[in-house]
Amino acid sequence: MKDILLTVGIPTFNGQAYLAQAIESVLSQLNQNNLAEVEIIISDNASTDDTEQIVRKFANTYSNTIKYFKNEVNVGFDRNVDYLFRKAAGRYVHVLGDDDYLSDNAIDKILGVIKRGVDYGILLLNIGFLHIPTNTELPVDKLDTELEFKNKDEFFLWSKWRTAAISSIVVRKQDWLCLSLDQYMGNQWIHISALMEVMAINSKAYAFPDKMVTVRVGNARWNNNGNQLKLGLIHLKVISRMLELGYKPDTFQTFVNDRFNNNLKDIILLSPVSFNERIKIASLMKPFFRNRFTFWFLHLPTLFIFGYPFLILKPVALAIKRKLK
């Protein structure tokens, strides 16, 4: 009997809209040559829609391949992802978003790299994007060749935001399980936290050149009340731990600079409606951008004035000042 080399883990919560396609994109690539080397685990975070019925139909047909777990209560996205690694039998775990799907031949390509026996800590999948509202595929940043890394700073300086989608990374289970990730729970960036920690102890990584997975963007789950803007800033807060893990300060500063260069655009496009949420977002920005002149005189005023044309500036400025003390 062959060892399971790859677990495709799908964390889901009320994922009925696209979950079947995610599962089918894996099953369609399994054959007599790789079937014994791959398993699918679905961890359902107490869904209230038809997610369970959808999964059980697949599980009944593919009982040797699919394992289904349903949490009694919603434990949060991060802990649900961690559950997948603790339930996985595979040597490597690919966390596939419940609204994403694999490209043709992705499974065999991943298995081929695993079988090299290099013990990469991270396999980075090249991703494409499908914009949900318009059903339009966005251009793929295809690489000319595969890439290998043996230095954590080199990897992050090259990959930057390529790792933002959880479906973009495959992690060696042994490396994940030796981490202490409790401090990151609740940030919704558990894969970035683990990636940063894994690369600090096992700096070997591999990047696939071809598109391996399609990630849906424009999902209503992330768009409510400025959630996308907030998540981007929490991402920055999470990776600030690089400074404690032996990464070069310039590596983290690259992320800060990139985020700041897009900050004004994101404020305009993604600002929340509520004043209290804007205060929270300003508080997240302040530690990273406080020394930049344009943050105080352009970004913050835009955050609080944009969408509120009738607000009087002085009361708003005083309220901001009190909240940020």
List keywords for this structure.
325 residues, alpha/beta, Spore Coat Polysaccharide Biosynthesis Protein SpsA, Chain A, 43% helix
Describe the structure.
The protein is α/β, with parallel strands linked by helices and about 325 residues long. It is about 45% helix and about 20% strand. The chain folds into two domains: about 5-220, Spore Coat Polysaccharide Biosynthesis Protein SpsA, Chain A (Alpha-Beta Complex), CATH 3.90.550.10; about 225-325, no CATH class. The protein has twelve helices and ten strands. Strands 1, 2, 3, 4, 5, 6, 7, 8, 9 and 10 form a ten-stranded mixed beta sheet that branches.
Q: What fraction of residues sit in β-strands? A: 15-25%
What is the CATH class name of the largest domain?
A: Alpha Beta
Largest sheet: 10 strands, mixed
Any idea of the CATH topology of the largest domain? Spore Coat Polysaccharide Biosynthesis Protein SpsA, Chain A
- Superfamily (CATH H level) name of the largest domain: Spore Coat Polysaccharide Biosynthesis Protein SpsA, Chain A
Structural class: alpha/beta
Please identify the oligomeric state: single chain
H and E string: EHEHEHEEHEEEHEHHEHHHHH
Uncertain segments of ≥5 residues (pLDDT<50)?
A: none
**Rounded radius of gyration (Å):** 21 Å
**Number of beta-strand segments:** 10
Tally of individual helices: 12
How would you describe the shape?
A: globular
Helix percentage range: 40-55%
CATH architecture of the largest domain: Alpha-Beta Complex
N-to-C terminal Cα separation, in Å?
62 Å
Mean pLDDT metric: 91
> How many domains, as an integer?
2
